[in-house]
Write a structure and sequence with these properties.
44% of the residues lie in helices and 18% in strands. The N and C termini lie far apart (49 Å). It is globular and about 60 Å long. The mean pLDDT is 95. It is α/β, with parallel strands linked by helices and 257 residues long. Helix 1 runs parallel beside helix 3 and helix 5 packs across helix 10. It has a seven-stranded mixed beta sheet with strand order 1-2-3-4-6-8-11, sandwiched between helices. Strands 5-7-9-10 form a four-stranded mixed beta sheet. It is found in: Peroxisome.
């Protein structure tokens, strides 16, 4: 099934969610977030599904939000499609495997923090450039990235927005392995299909136990980030950053204090 450039299919116990908008670098619109949220909910409810696979297109996982769509229809509260997608991914107690086929920017990177397995192409570039856009981290990144990387490396990735390679993602513990681009999806699918041989109840309960200690803290952080993110969207700094993006120039933040 294909809805608004999100393709879904279920085969051999694996529900695949494929981001399929390569002409726009797989930039995510509100309709795409809605489709992904629905696909995750459907996979969660379907007993024959043992695992979920999220992937993109050759050379691109997702470049993050479609800025034009995002500015025309910014998130309005936790019921907006982007937050429904976040909620659906957080609530999925089946294993989620990501095949990062190329660049993963913004939420393309932060969604990986909530996947159970991440396999990255050796051609991939990952980045969380929120501050450079006059924004703040989202999807719990302000909690999870410092936890995993330590505060100094987290500052490089979140405050400076430094991009990094698939190899560095694996070294930092943000990915299970880096693979040749042609092997990423097949490896991710092999891992997802292994859950056909495991007891599904034990898998689900074990995942819940692994996530339980900071579940409520994470949700609180995501809500706080969302409130600040929405406020920052209206800030003069963000307006300058977005105008510079659309005008294909470097932003000038020199007048801000």
């Amino acid at each position: 099934m294909s809805i608004t450039t999100i393709r879904t299919a279920t085969l051999n116990g694996v529900a695949t969610i494929e981001i399929a908008r390569p002409e726009k670098k797989n930039a995510l619109t509100l309709a795409m977030y809605e489709a992904m949220a629905e696909a995750l909910r459907a996979a969660q409810a379907e007993p024959s599904v043992r695992a979920v696979l999220i992937t993109g297109q050759p050379g691109i996982f997702t470049s993050g939000n479609d800025l034009e769509d995002f500015m025309q229809r910014p998130p309005q509260g936790m019921d907006s499609p982007v937050f429904r997608f976040m909620e659906a991914l957080l609530d999925c107690d089946k294993p989620v495997v990501a095949a990062v086929t190329g660049a993963a920017i913004g939420i393309g990177m932060t969604m990986l923090l909530h996947c159970d397995f991440v396999y990255v192409s050796d051609e991939a570039r990952l980045a969380m450039p929120f501050v450079g856009l006059g924004l703040v981290p989202e999807f719990g990144a302000s909690l999870l990235v410092p936890q995993r990387l330590g505060p100094m490396r987290a500052a490089e990735k979140l405050l400076l927005g430094d991009p990094f390679t698939g190899s560095e993602a694996a070294e930092l513990g943000l990915a299970n392995a880096v693979l040749p681009a042609s092997e990423v999806v097949n490896q991710a699918r092999r891992v997802a299909e292994r859950f056909n041989q495991l007891p599904p109840g034990a898998v689900r309960e074990s995942k819940r136990l692994m996530r339980a200690p900071q579940r409520e803290q994470l949700r609180a952080v995501i809500a706080t980030e969302a409130e600040l993110f929405a406020a920052r969207l209206r800030s003069p700094e963000a307006q300058e950053a977005f105008q510079a993006f659309f005008q294909k120039r470097q932003p000038d933040f020199s007048r801000f204090a």
